[in-house]
């Protein structure tokens, strides 16, 4: 049995067939039922491995779920809009999502939460910070950004995190513009940024390019400004309050 399973690459079945057989004897399954269940075990194992591969390939920085987001702590974020986004209809309409706000308010958490929901639903998903994107553009294999743009225009959902912390040279700005253009009206992109849109000209060091890029990005977009306190600092704030009282 082990040899046959190995020849057919039935890795899950190979590891559990003794249990399956024991259960079949116990429950007196028919031959047909045994065959069906044995193959179903293999199919389930494959689906799980494929799902695990997709999660790894997505490269989320942390496993943040939307269910774990405390909307009471961050009242500037509309729970209704986030729930609506979590239904993933924005993927069908290729609507971009922009989370804007200072550090610690939950931008990356919400972006990861939406990506997790998309992964659960079977979509291809990718997460990258702008700094990583720039590092990949600077790699000798990037071929003028073509490889990078081709890679990131594929996934059904892409997050570009932390726009604003990395200074862009003209070749980076143009590659980012090409990427936005390639995804425009095809696949949605989620962006997080500590900058206002007015500051994007400075980020790209090119006002004309920034205007053209924002024009495409915001044509179909949900912009979510977050202007609350940093969740990372909440203990400190509580501490301060206690000390002050
Ligand atoms: P940002 O990307 O805006 O700097 P993060 O999303 O990285 O902030 O949030 C910082 C940390 O605080 C993360 O661990 C995140 O899970 C957590 N966090 C932020 N806001 C909330 C919230 N409203 N409810 C629960 N956890 C939160
Ligand atoms: Mg962040």
UniProtKB/TrEMBL annotation:
Residues 93-225 form the AAA+ ATPase domain. NCBIfam families: IS21_help_AAA (NF038214). Keywords: ATP-binding, Nucleotide-binding. It comes from Herpetosiphon geysericola. SMART domains: AAA. Belongs to the IS21/IS1162 putative ATP-binding protein family. Pfam families: IstB_IS21. InterPro entries: AAA+_ATPase, DNAC/IstB-like, IstB, IstB_ATP-bd, P-loop_NTPase. One of its GO terms (molecular function) is ATP binding. GO terms for biological process: DNA replication. This is AAA+ ATPase domain-containing protein. It comes from the Bacteria.
């Amino acid at each position: 049995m082990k040899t046959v399973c190995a020849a057919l690459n039935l890795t899950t079945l190979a590891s559990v067939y003794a249990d399956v057989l024991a259960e079949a004897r116990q429950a007196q399954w028919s031959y047909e039922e045994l065959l069906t269940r044995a193959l179903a075990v293999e199919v389930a194992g494959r689906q799980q491995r494929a799902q695990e591969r997709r999660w790894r390939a997505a490269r989320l920085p942390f496993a943040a779920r939307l269910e774990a987001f405390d909307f009471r702590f961050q009242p500037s974020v509309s729970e209704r809009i986030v729930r609506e986004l979590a239904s993933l209809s924005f993927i069908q309409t290729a609507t971009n999502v922009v989370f804007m706000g200072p550090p610690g308010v939950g931008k990356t958490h919400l972006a990861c939460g939406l990506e997790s929901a998309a992964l659960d639903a079977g979509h291809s998903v990718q997460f990258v910070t702008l700094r990583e994107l720039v590092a990949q553009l600077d790699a000798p294999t990037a071929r003028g950004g073509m490889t990078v743009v081709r890679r990131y225009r594929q996934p059904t959902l892409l997050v570009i995190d932390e726009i604003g912390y990395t200074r862009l040279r003209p070749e980076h700005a143009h590659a980012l513009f090409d990427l936005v253009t390639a995804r425009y009206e095809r696949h949605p992109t989620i962006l997080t940024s500590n900058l206002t849109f007015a500051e994007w000209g400075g980020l790209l060091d090119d006002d004309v390019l920034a205007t053209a890029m924002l024009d495409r990005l915001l044509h179909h977009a949900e912009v979510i400004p977050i202007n609350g306190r940093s969740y990372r600092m909440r203990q400190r704030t509580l501490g301060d309050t206690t000390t002050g009282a």
